[in-house]
Amino acid sequence: MSKQELAVIGQDAGCCPGLSAAPLEEDQAAELAKVFKALGDPVRLRLMSMIASRGEGGEVCVCELTPAFELSQPTISHHLKLLRQAGLIDCERRGTWVYYWVLPGVLDKLAAFLTTAQPAGVTA
């Protein structure tokens, strides 16, 4: 079982400057590229959405994910493995089934990284 965590890039404990705060270092860019590459596939993006929609602490069985796609179970498992390797989700085997969940804070960290500072008085 993998217990990877998405690294908080370009941030310290006090604030979340995000993408526009400073240029990324080469290793930071490589690490983030893995995450975005994993999310860049429509199947993986849908899988991530299905898992994340269970809410904080929610989990979903692979048996619930597979029927939503016209893909084989091994193909779905491969996509889930790539999401795990990118540090977005984790899983646990219980008997014959595997349950998946979004790692805590991962989506918030990605959102904070992508957020740009808005000048006072400007709304999106």
Word description of this protein:
A hairpin with a 2-residue loop joins strand 2 (89-94) and strand 3. The chain is elongated and about 50 Å long. Mean pLDDT is 82; it is low at 8-16. The protein has helices at residues 26-39, 42-52, 62-65, 73-85, 106-114; strands spanning 60-61, 89-94, 97-102. The chain is α+β, with helices and mostly antiparallel strands. Strands 1-3-2 form a three-stranded antiparallel beta sheet. Helix 2 packs across helix 4 (73-85). The longest helix has 14 residues, at 26-39. It contains five helices and three strands.
H/E topology pattern: HHEHHEEH
Q: Trace the largest sheet across and list its strands.
A: 1-3-2
**pLDDT below 50 for ≥5 consecutive residues: which ranges?**
8-16
Mean pLDDT: 82
Gist of the model:
This protein has helices at residues 26-39, 42-52, 62-65, 73-85, 106-114, and strands at 60-61, 89-94, 97-102. With 124 residues, the chain is an alpha+beta fold. The longest helix is centred in the first third of the chain and has 14 residues, at 26-39.
Keywords:
3 strands; three-stranded antiparallel β-sheet; 5 helices; 124 residues
Give me the secondary-structure topology:
Layout: H1 26-39, H2 42-52, E1 60-61, H3 62-65, H4 73-85, E2 89-94, E3 97-102, H5 106-114
Antiparallel strand pairs: 1-3, 2-3
